[in-house]
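Exercise: predict the structure of this protein bound to zinc ion.
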Amino acid sequence: MNTRKFIVITGTIMLFMSCATNPFTGKQTLALVPNSQILPMAFQQYNQFLGENKVLKGTTDAEMVTRVGQKIAKASERWLNANGYQGYLKDYKWEYNLVEDKTVNAWCMPGGKIVVYTGILPIAKNETGVAAIMGHEVAHALANHGQQRMSAGQIQQVAGAATAIAVSGKDSKTQQIVGTAFGLGSQFGVMLPFSRSHETEADRIGLQLMAIAGYNPDEAAELWKRMKANSGGQAPAEFMSTHPSNDTRIANLTAWSPSAKAEARKFGVTTFK
Ligand SMILES: [Zn+2]
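Solution:
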């Protein structure tokens, strides 16, 4: 192989396997499918979900979900800007929707597309509880947990679908593949469980985001106590997953709360709602 050919091939591989340090986790993330390609697919699937479900608009709860979402998004951007990652979320198109559904769940697709189900509101109890939930979900997205959960084969499929969409504008398998990529199962809204380490990471990052957004991080542990009390019934994967155990989670959140407040103070946030 001549040098030029080697450079071209290596360059092509590197283009598809760019390895970037995730600012939120400090870990190397293998980005096989660039955001500019994968996010439009997420947006398409999000819109389809909204079209097939009852989205609440203009109610007190819907307005609260939007308000919390905007604050968590702003907190994410402030944190990134302060840490030298200006423009990191340039492909994000934040959106926050409350959906009428009794399932105890919420999720955030990569690109900042958030859904909160009405079923989780009684456990959230108040705006601060919603902030704890949304901080956690946004953290999964920011830390690229969806892609990391995929197998190499699935990543190849998504890369293939992204290419097909870039070429033809449409791909019949897109929904299923993208659903896998973003953690929505074969049915919308059914989350595949994240690993224990991803859950713990999302708890830690989410706690900081809610604090920077001005919400009291002490309340995250209280939220999970309510989740624990509620977990006797049916168990949606994301919020009732048994890993880490509720007790471990509550202990972690309690232990980390002071450092989340300290982080928030760096942004001039000294009082918490
Ligand atoms: Zn989670």
